[in-house]
Amino acid sequence: MKVLLVEDDEFKATDILKVLEESLAEAEVLRAMSVTSAMKAINSETFALVVLDMSLPTFEMSGPGGGGSPQGQGGLEVLRLARRLQHLSPFIVVTQYPDIELDGSDIPLSTAAKALRTRFGVNVRACLLYEFDRDNWRAPLREHLRQLAIETREDGR
Predict the structure, then answer these.
(1) Rounded to whole angstroms, how far apart are CA atoms 109 and 8?
(2) 52 vs 65: CA distance, rounded Å
(3) Residue 25's CB: how many other CB atoms inside 10 A?
(4) Which letter, b or e, does each residue of 116-149 get, where b requires 16 or more Cβ atoms within 10 Å of its Cβ?
(5) From first to last of its 157 residues, what are the pLDDT tens digits of the chain?
(6) Residue 13: which residues within 8 A CB-CB, separation 6 or more?
(7) Helix ranges (DSSP H) in the chain
(8) Max CA-CA distance within the chain?
């Protein structure tokens, strides 16, 4: 099972990787750290899951001034491409923001997954609030990963 983690923050990525490794020990986790690298990855293959941050740099960070323009909603660009490609991977958004700006409106995370599914026509399973000093995001992520593991076994993926 392949999982794509799209996250540019090292500390947050390490936290998420720990949960992925605990919950999906057999998973091969690939990492993208920018909008461009995430788009290349989803353009090339379908993943059992994409864990997606919303705030991403345009390009990978390399050298002074690298990374291109920061995009507060760079994850939306990834979802737009997924829609164009009719990409089948499920997505879980893990963000440090309590809402997602969509079409000029702030959508609370509690309803954002449905709004993103409707807007982009892709399988956004959940939108979770990551807080580095709290663990309340871990249990919902573990539950989604548990469900994914069950579905994957049933589908024989």
Answers:
(1) 20
(2) 24
(3) 8
(4) beebbebbbebbbbbeeeeeebbeebeebbeebb
(5) 899 999 999 999 999 999 999 999 889 999 999 999 999 999 999 999 999 999 998 866 654 445 555 566 889 999 999 999 988 899 999 999 999 999 999 999 999 999 999 999 999 999 999 999 999 999 999 999 999 988 887 775 4
(6) 5, 7, 31
(7) 10-23, 35-44, 74-85, 109-120, 138-155
(8) 47
